[in-house]
Design goal:
This protein is mostly helical and 373 residues long. It is built from 14 helices and four strands. The protein is 69% helix and 6% strand. A four-stranded mixed sheet has the order 2-1-3-4, with helices on both faces.
């Protein structure tokens, strides 16, 4: 027993020294997450801001001035006036504007008469998500203007319903609060698989793996020596990513930090297991890196619910998402960050991660036994 522990301690010391002397492993664990978080956090947004909007007012008066002022004051729009609807449509065709609000010549008269005053809204539908957002923003300006008009007149707004919206879990309605927790899962997927796949492939290329194989070291000791240092390195990268999310991007962490740490450890074990499994097949760094990206990062990016809603996918694709570990971690991340410790979400997803970690690590050990004995 003491001999086995001594061998394991020696292997762990070797791996620690190798990590310390090899800047690429430290870059994967700390620099890569920071760069990706900064790029995605600042560069990717699902919010429609500074929408280029064309305003066509055929007969300017007090009513049209009050209504169009709402677009100038809104943080979502960058309005631009056009004399005719034809000019505005030409600007939309040239991609100079993304939407048109058209107030016809009888708008002010109909408002004063208390009748229906239709507003023409034309939206560029090439980007369906932006089109829906712009339509909602225009309706928001319209509703606010109606409320202001009714307040001036001392009457109730001419609307059949009084809407009082409440946004749960993300009151700021910021896509950054939604994207950053999911992005951490993507980073952990990539770094976890790359850390183990590349370093083991590098040892095969350098010939040091063969030297280790002729020693009395057992397969279990070798796998533990490869797993534990990079697990600690990955958790350090995870801690740095969470710190950037909370303190730099202002993403709220509503749930428990301990729950986040425990579930992150489960996911990292699954990711490292995938890396060990990849290294069993690929003994070249380039090949190992390509396999890691294709089999871990791309499925995680597309099929985890990070960007694309899983419920909107075809049934066959939804079934495939169940074998993507990032799917479960993204759900946990978004719950812990934005909603809190919702155990009905955390427990089943954590159980799935634990099962996948056991499966991947078990497969890696089984294949390693065949190759190393």
């Amino acid at each position: 027993m003491s001999g086995g522990f001594g061998r394991l301690r020696g292997l762990l010391r070797k791996e620690t020294l190798q990590i310390w002397r090899d800047p690429s492993a430290l870059a994967i664990a700390f620099v890569l997450p920071t760069v990706l978080l900064l790029m995605f956090g600042y560069g990717v947004s699902l919010d429609a801001r500074n929408v280029r909007l064309a305003l066509v007012v055929q007969h300017p008066d007090a009513a049209t001035a009050g209504f169009t002022a709402g677009f100038a004051q809104s943080p979502f729009f960058r309005p631009r006036r056009f004399a005719t609807i034809q000019d505005a449509e030409a600007a939309m065709s040239a991609d100079e504007v993304q939407g048109i609000v058209w107030l016809q010549s009888d708008f002010g008269r109909l408002v004063e008469a208390g009748g229906a005053a239709p507003i023409g809204v034309i939206v560029n539908g090439v980007d369906a998500n932006d089109a829906r957002l712009i339509e909602g923003y225009v309706q928001q300006v319209w509703s606010s203007w109606l409320g202001a008009q009714a307040a001036l007149a001392g009457t109730k707004p001419p609307m059949p319903l009084s809407v009082q919206p409440q946004v749960r879990f993300n009151p700021a309605v910021s896509s950054r609060n939604y994207l950053v927790p999911g992005l951490i899962a993507m980073i952990m997927t990539l770094t976890g698989a790359l850390l183990t796949a590349l370093v083991i492939a590098r040892e095969w290329e350098r010939g040091t793996m063969e030297a280790v194989m002729v020693t009395p070291v057992t397969v279990r000791e070798l796998l533990l020596a490869k797993l534990l240092p990079y697990f600690a390195l990955g958790m350090g990268g995870m801690a740095g990513s969470v710190a950037i999310a909370v303190f730099l991007f202002g993403v709220p962490l509503v749930g428990s930090l301990w729950v986040l740490t425990a579930t992150s450890a489960l996911f990292l074990l699954a990711a490292l297991g995938m890396g060990l499994l990849i290294s069993s097949f690929a003994r070249n760094q380039f090949v190992a890196g390509q396999i890691a990206i294709i089999t871990t990062f791309l499925p995680a990016f597309i099929l985890s619910g990070f960007v694309f809603d899983i419920n909107s996918m075809p049934q066959a694709v939804q079934f495939i998402t169940h074998i993507v570990a990032a799917r479960y971690f993204v759900a946990i991340q978004q719950s812990v960050f934005l909603a809190g410790d919702v155990w009905s979400v955390i427990l089943p997803n954590a159980a799935a991660l634990a099962l996948m970690a056991v499966v991947f690590l078990g497969l890696a050990r089984a294949i390693a036994r065949k190759r190393l004995d």
